[in-house]
Known about the structure:
It is a single chain. With 186 residues, this protein is of the alpha/beta class. The protein has a single domain (4-173), classed as 3-Layer(aba) Sandwich (Rossmann fold). Helix content is 43%, strand content 18%. It contains 6 helices and 6 strands. It has helices spanning 12-16, 37-53, 77-87, 99-102, 106-119, 145-173; strands spanning 4-5, 18-27, 57-67, 93-96, 123-126, 132-133. The chain has a 6-stranded mixed β-sheet, sandwiched between helices. The radius of gyration is 19 Å and the shape is elongated. The N and C termini lie far apart (51 Å).
Amino acid sequence: MARIRKQETTTRAAAAIVWLIAVYIRLSREDGGEESGSVTNQKKILIEYLENNFDGQYEIVDFYIDDGLTGTDDTRADFARMVLDIEQGRVNCVLVKTLSRAFRNYADQGYYLEAFFPQKKVRFISTGDPRVDTYTNPEAITGLEVPITGLMNDRYAAKISSDVRRTFDYKRRNGEFIGAFADTIL
């Protein structure tokens, strides 16, 4: 499972670090069901990033995949497993496609990016907009773009949830079926 790549680095400090990478992938319920093309595409994008843009030595510790879960879910099994691996020192770098793949909750984003990851000396990389790399550009977290993106992701999740509840309420009031499968009584 582990993939190791060595590349010449420009500084001695960077050369001394071997990044133990957790590749975190999440696909929400709204995005689809089965191990989707989105999960497969996220894997490809993140591996390509490592192969073409990552400077230094690294090893992929594992792929942590929460397929079919929203980023606001506090019980994401693989996210929790990744956090445990960080706490146990097995991971020192987290790689995600975008901030919204890891966080849909603004408070969680702030906690992990501003407190938990720095305390554990964990590098966090998001390859999408905004691009974040807390090792090469630690100031990105305290700028405007990351917090604003986090707030937008949080509000987007809240809006979708509200819209879905409103639709379900409408259907209930009108006697329409809202479950996954209609029971047929023969």
